[in-house]
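Hi R.,

Here's the chain you asked about this morning:
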Amino acid sequence: MKRLLILGAGAQGSTVAKRMNEEANVSEIICADYDEKAVVEMEKNLDKARALQLDATRVENVVQAARGVDLVVNALPISFASRIIDAALQAGTNYQDFAAGEEEGVDYVEGIREMFTVKDRQFREAGLTALIGTGSAPGLVNVITRDTTEKLDRCESIQIYVYEGVKAKRFLPFWWSPEVAYADMNDTAYAYEDGKIIETEPYSRPVWFKFRGFDEEVRMVEHCHDEPVTMGLLADKYLKGARQVWFKYGGFGVEFAEPLYRMGLLSDQPIEFKGSTFVPRDLVLHLTPAAPKYEDEIREIMEEGLESDTGAMLIRVTGEKDGKPVQIDNYVNAPSCAEAFQKSGLTGETYLTGQCGALFTKMFVNDVIQQKGLFPPEALESEQRSYYLAEAAKLDITVDQIVE
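And here is the predicted structure, written out as tokens:
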């Protein structure tokens, strides 16, 4: 029987808690967040949950909460990642998160490289496991990518396209944490080209792309994401020597955030204005409505109606098989926002990312993942990937593969 500590009671953390409450191998779920109301709500609704108000900015608080648990699931903003990883090591427990974090003062790429070397060694030596980047993208995307490259003799490129077209009638720019969204939309983006990781500007290098089932082309741009970095660093080891990896993002969130970025309003650097000092992003964040996370909030939005309820996720892999060029398109199918709410009381964003994350947690609690060290999902073995995709299909998260 496993005891879990889930840090963060937002959309993703609460989804993992709900799913783990159904697992026979889970005895207790400690739901921890600075928001006491959120964790108390989870304790009321889940019979295995125990609420814990926690200030995760202090490593010692996390270490104390994590002692004696089998797994720490970090569903906090990515700025917490480095300290939570350290806390897991100090507490002697396994670790899982939804995206690689960035440590202040440390280059993003070098920080991930250090995780794959120093942190990997530390977790191995401690006999522990740390699985990073376990949502939908990164997460599900990485599993699909590795599975696809295994069909090739040599991989040339990995192209990841994510489009989010869900728009409420009310003003609601993001269906996930605005804090995380604005950080991602302001940060340097990366691509892996000709065997090297390069920096790209957010919203740059646009392409117009027509997804299967879409009537028109949509604009896709550069966006800060883990996949080009983790896949680039591990291309030779796990991805048949891929030479190019890029992530393109589009949708209403991008269209809303790009003008703010251009005006410097997403900057986290203080500025002076009329005798006062303030951080532009703090002001914008203060004025941005929070993403809905309670079922009654989501129901109210659904009853008002949606202006649009579309989305697309495509992983295109190119390479060679038996000396011939091959292109493999992987389209991810998942419930729409309205369908996700009808099925589980969740938004479409929360359903896909939260459920995908919960499936990795399920693999932990049922001992499907036993490797030691720190690694992303593209490092999982064939049987583990098959298990994951089969469990995802039970949740109506499937993949249509088109080979040309």
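One quick note: The first helix runs from residue 11 to 20.

Cheers,
M.
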